[in-house]
Amino acid sequence: MDEKEKEALEKVKAAQKQATDEATKGFKAQLDNADEKIKAAETRADEAEKKAKELEKNQDEMQKHLDQLDVELQGTKTRRTSDEDFLAKALKEAEENGDLKKAMDTKSNSTVIAKMEIKAVASPMTVGSVGGNADLIVSREVDGGINRPNAPQRNVLNNANVRATTAATIEWVNRENSEGNAEFLGEGELKPLRSFEYSQEESKAKKVAVAFKVTTESLQDISILADEIRQDGIEAVEDEVNDKLLNGDGTIATEPKGLIVQAAAFNVVGLTVANPNNYDAIVAASLQVSMLRHTPNIAFVNSIDFTNLALTKGSDGHYIMPLFATKDGERIQIAEIRVVKSDEIEVGSVLVGDMRKFHVRPYGPYTIEIGTENDDLRKNLRTIIVERRLHAYIKKHDKTAFVYDTFDNIKAAIVADEAAA
């Protein structure tokens, strides 16, 4: 073997020795690490065993206390029973010997085995005498929620053609004053002329609002007050809107013009109905709307008139409209007309129309603002404003889509002339 081979062999042996040493060191480190983990586990086990022994000791001591308490309670019960038995026995013997009666006699000097003293009966314990002003010890329960007054009906608003808008002014064009008609003609004849005009209408958003004055303390102390004010304010606004949509007379520029002032009175001529009733009056009013090329879909009547309609009977006693045929107890259907119970309408009157022609266009959402005015800041007061803006309008040619009149007027106009008959 030459020198180079020897040198190479030595290098190989050195490399093998180095690898063996490194492997041995790594294995030893792993063994040391495992040994430390085992020692740590043994330490935790010892601590757990120590705590378990302490808990067992505490449990034994608690059981001793409970056993002692039970013995004391049993002893008290035994003593009380013995005392009661002794007293009962003494009273029985005194009664048998006649000594009890003598002892109770105010003129007698006799005594009995058990001396008795008759005392005045103590005042009974009542909720008032025991509780006094300490309300916390008297059982109470809070029935959650707020009991609010019943809100008025909003049938006009709920049945109108409601659609939001982002415009403060809404404009539309009416075509009117049409003249001339088409005709059938012969060859070479002069064609007829026809003409019409346009007019423009507009609606400007109307504002409806309500304000509250409230202290900062009440807002802070009554957690639900802010939400109550918001809800009450919105309801107040909607109530006012619904009222003016029906009853607004149009004389105040800041208010919408209502349905009643824009609706026509009944004016159909030629109907002859024998002994007309309120059903006939509703059908007649809807006829007037239909004759003017509208499609009536609703009739509002007062709840009194609605109930009278539901209870109307024929001559033989049968119901014209049985109660079970009404829809949800709130509606009666007469052909295409839906009769809606609404106390917003006066008793004895009826409003018939095509509610799709009554446009209500809310302009933006409700606005709720909190601020100060005058000396509010010095008095810890806040002013809360709830408001909204909206349009409400009927276009010029659609005003004939509504009829408002009394049942009596309509029935008088359609009753058959018996003399003529």
UniProtKB/TrEMBL annotation:
Its main location: virion. It comes from the Bacteria. Residues 137-390 form the Phage capsid-like C-terminal domain. It is found in: Virion. Gene3D superfamilies: hypothetical protein PF0899 domain, Major capsid protein gp5. SUPFAM superfamilies: Major capsid protein gp5, Tropomyosin. Residues 1-27, 42-64 are annotated as: Disordered. Residues 1-25 have a biased composition (Basic and acidic residues). NCBIfam families: major_cap_HK97. This is Phage major capsid protein. It comes from Sphingobacterium corticis. The lineage of its organism: Bacteria, Pseudomonadati, Bacteroidota, Sphingobacteriia, Sphingobacteriales.
